[in-house]
Design brief:
Length: 429
């Protein structure tokens, strides 16, 4: 076949019409709709990016939710804003749903919030050279939310949403989730229990799909020593002090716990001395101590990432044993693990879904899809439904997420919409 090549910043793609024979008539109509409405999708993305929705800007998060809710309602989904208790201190979530009995029951996951709060200088969409555009939260992940919407709009245009079961879950606090997670993620977990397959629309990477993500759990180590004049350190009555004991524990973590593939842990904050004032909510504090006083108190906060529940338990058990046994004279220590994002393991079902997505991509004339290294991805909301088949990374391409240099490749928007639309179409037949 004679092929016409078109160049994108992120690779080579073949125009869809050259591969029409790989799509049935309805799928060709879906692609035609997307081609005709690409500029509308771009305008919609610009509109929602220009509404600040930093996690703690509750009004902004709800405002973006209202824009999407109106659009989902127009194509036959029933939208609902789910408020969270005041104690959680988050805006809430937008869910939109339609019920049917045809094909697989799908859960499409995105989030409305961004890391850029109201006081951030990075606020507006701005086109740059070529296909690139600066967009706060555009790749992570309002672009993915737009992909969900316009994929469903394309299916609705030919009646392909009829009798399907689809839940769209756009959380309002993915970037800084409300605590406890059992409350802030209850609606998402419940939706997963009513679904067969979860598709996540976090920013994608050319040629890759995400079928595994590591957990994200926080830990807190508290160490106590005996306060005394430093001339008596190491004595039977005083012992070694809190700082030496913390050093022993952290070194043992490094030497005895690390080593398993995909297992990482990081002490991100340490504060200690004679007296400390620690603000855990904002991860900061002050300490008072003197070189001639044995340290009495120390706190370390860190993160733990694992690929499976089994790996997480092994790591936690080892860390607990090190912290609470073999303490230096005159010291004691405790370690606590907070509720966190669970791991999304690379199951056989996830691998099969990735293969289906690869066929969709190739049928559209795009490249095949490989599994993204879970060691290079952070946690995401799809991890809360690991009990069903899942895949993530179906959003737009870009770079610089979580930084003032966040960019979206606008040419990837129709590509992501087409891939998502055909995948959803095939899964719901």
């Amino acid at each position: 076949m004679k092929r016409l090549i078109c160049l994108s910043l992120f690779g080579l793609f073949l125009p869809t019409f050259f591969f029409a024979q790989n799509l049935n008539l309805e799928e060709q109509k879906i692609i035609s709709y997307i081609d005709q409405h690409t500029s509308e999708a771009e305008d919609f993305l610009i509109k929602v990016v220009n509404i600040n929705s930093g996690t703690m800007n509750h009004k902004g998060v709800k405002a973006v939710g209202k824009v999407f809710a109106k659009a989902f309602d127009k194509i036959g989904l029933q939208s609902e804003w789910i408020n969270l208790p005041d104690s959680v201190n988050r805006a809430g979530h937008l869910f939109a749903e339609r019920k049917g009995s045809k094909g697989k029951k799908l859960l499409l996951i995105g989030h409305l919030d961004t890391v850029f709060e109201k006081d951030s200088p990075f606020q507006k969409f701005e086109r740059r050279g070529g296909n690139m555009a600066a967009a706060p939260g555009g790749q992570d992940m309002k672009g993915g939310d737009v992909v969900i919407l316009f994929a469903l709009k394309a299916l609705q245009s030919i009646g392909a949403l009829e009798n399907t079961s689809i839940i769209v879950a756009l959380t309002g606090d993915e970037e800084k989730p409300g605590i406890p997670l059992s409350v802030s993620r209850k609606a998402l977990i419940d939706a997963g229990k009513r679904s067969d397959i979860a598709l996540g629309f976090e920013g994608g990477a050319p040629g890759f799909g995400v079928i595994a993500r590591r957990s994200s759990t926080e830990w807190k180590l508290e160490v106590k020593g005996t306060r005394s004049h430093s001339s008596r350190i190491f004595s039977e009555e005083v012992g070694s002090g809190a700082i030496f004991e913390a050093a022993r524990i952290l070194n043992a973590f490094h030497e005895e716990v690390k080593g398993e593939k995909y297992l990482t842990f990081n002490p991100g904050l340490i504060i200690g001395g004679t007296q400390i004032d620690f603000d855990g909510e904002n991860s900061k504090g002050t300490a008072f101590g003197k070189t001639n006083v044995v340290s009495q108190t120390l706190i370390v906060e860190g993160g733990l990432r694992t690929i499976s529940n089994e790996q997480e338990k092994r790591a936690q058990d080892k860390m607990k044993a090190i912290a609470m046994n073999g303490n230096l004279p005159g010291t004691s220590a405790t370690i606590h693990f907070q509720e966190g994002y669970p791991p999304m393991s690379p199951t056989d079902e996830n691998i099969d879904l990735l293969q289906q997505f690869t066929k969709v991509s190739r049928d559209l004339g795009y490249e095949g899809i490989e599994a993204y290294d879970p060691g290079s991805r952070g946690a995401a909301d799809i991890s809360f439904v690991p009990f069903i088949t899942g895949m993530d990374g179906l959003g737009v391409f870009g770079k610089g997420a979580h930084t003032p240099q966040e960019m979206v490749d606008m040419s990837s928007l129709p590509i992501a919409i087409k891939r998502a639309a055909i995948l959803i179409y095939r899964l719901t037949r």
